[in-house]
Amino acid sequence: MEYMNKSLTQIHNALIKGEVTPLELVKEAIEKAKKDDNNAFEYICEKEALEAVKKLDESNKDSLLWGVPVVIKDNYSTKDIPTTASSNILNGYVPVFSAEAVIRLEKAGAIVIAKTTMDELAMGGSGTTGHLGVTYNPWDKSKTRIVGGSSCGSAAAMASGIVPIALGSDTGDSVRKPASYAALVGFKPTWGRISRFGLFPFATSLDHVGYFSRNVYDSAYLLNVLAGHDDKDFSSSFKEVNDYTSKINEGVINKRIAVIKGIIDSIKDKTVLASFDESINYLKKQGATVDVVEIDINLLKSIFPTYVIISCAEATSNNANLDGIKFGNRIEGESFEEVMMNTRTNGFSPLIKRRFVIGSFSLMRENQDELFVRAQKCRRMIVDAFNKVFEKYDAIYCPASPSIAPLIKGSSDTLSDEYLIADNYMAFGNMGGYPSITLPIGFENNMPFGANLTCKPFDEANLFSIANEIEKGTGLKDLVAKEGR
Ligand code: GLN
């Protein structure tokens, strides 16, 4: 009997009935992780996980995470466990503390069994730029398609049924886009809702802890575990934590949902549009009002360039500590300037250097007003436009990607006019710090695609209840690639 391809509730029930033990679960997950052929893992924590099972706190048995194996994206600090953010500059780095999100998972009884591959330092969307190379999409047996990034290894581990929960991080869409390509539920909360202590910063004003689950209920449950103020993260909110599962079966009667015209218009794939329409019709039948709402097309087009300037500028500043002196594998030199130069030249891939060049350029005194400050103003205008929609609507709903997972060949980090809006719009969720969730809505040639739902800040309970209704409509939950379709 396999358990790792199931939902949290199913696994929990099996544990409670004594059908299976935490040790057996950990062994199953590690065995599957060792057989992984999608390049999902940076490090499998076999010894550490077997130790952790022995120390499981029996008094915690009611937690749905108790005794449950999980995986963690490699940009979360994990005490005594190598953490590289899939960058050569951090090869061999072993943190001396764990990220708060990891600590909270472990307190709830979860067992970390592996660290997962990612785009280098979380800067990417293809899952092809980490130091271990391409991470494949488990749904595509021919291994020609990306699973998406930057949380590629976590998505691949989930889609191939290795664990039921995986931590990722989301600065532009790095959990919500791969979720679409891998038939998963991918969620990021309101900015500040989950502590980011110990998550390597990429672009602080946009970064969110995010995660994958197999269904909406598990996603809501996990927020109960992870949400809440943390003294170690000054940007974490003091707002009280709700029970995010409490409203999950509330339904959508009288809920108002906006579909953004410019986003829909930018999607050409007929199968994606047809499944999306189907899910809208279902929501209407269940009592929701769904309207097509316009946002200035120039604002929608500016989401990506605005994101590029702000994220690269913040990344340049945040990663200045990877210099071979404070952190990072040192390459010696004659002076400390030379040490830094050698270390950074050697440690980062060209893609990362490109982003640092964009970031430094936009922060230079002579360019700052024209680039960085202007991008901040654009961000304000974009967020104002979405806030205006939220004055009248509970949620914004659109396809999460314009197509199924793209081919590895041709996947790049460059601007694409074709999908300028459709491929990049979800970053509005990071700019406004809105809670946002992707869930599967259909398949094309046996490859999945999803839709994205975004709500007002701190309206997570509402988000989960609408998402749960969408899930009921599609019937697409608890999906694992190897079982095929
Ligand atoms: N694809 C986006 C980028 O390359 C998002 C990254 C992320 O969310 N970490 O920056």
Q: Largest sheet at a glance?
A: 11 strands, mixed
Please tell me the CATH architecture by its name: Alpha-Beta Complex
How many discrete domains? 1
Looking at this structure, what is the CATH superfamily?
A: Amidase signature (AS) domain
Helix run count: 15
Please identify the top-level CATH class.
Answer: Alpha Beta
Approximately how much beta-strand content do the residues carry?
5-15%
- Strand order, biggest sheet? 1-3-2-4-6-5-10-11-9-7-8
The share of residues in helices is 25-40%
CATH fold-level assignment: Amidase signature (AS) enzymes
Subunit organisation of the chains: single chain
Number of strands: 11
From the spread of the alpha carbons, the general shape counts as globular
Q: What compounds sit in this structure?
A: glutamine
Nearest-integer average pLDDT: 96
Order of helices and strands: HHEHEHEHEHEEHEHHEHHHHEHEEH
C-alpha Rg, in Å?
21 Å
List the helices and strands and how they pair.
Layout: H1 8-16, H2 22-34, E1 41-44, H3 46-54, E2 69-73, H4 100-107, E3 111-116, H5 152-159, E4 166-170, H6 176-182, E5 185-188, E6 208-213, H7 216-226, E7 256-260, H8 261-265, H9 270-285, E8 289-293, H10 297-318, H11 336-347, H12 350-363, H13 365-392, E9 395-399, H14 428-431, E10 436-444, E11 447-455, H15 460-474
Parallel strand pairs: 2-3, 2-4, 7-8, 7-9
Antiparallel strand pairs: 1-3, 4-6, 5-6, 5-10, 9-11, 10-11
Helix pairs in contact: 2-3, 7-15, 9-15, 10-12, 10-13
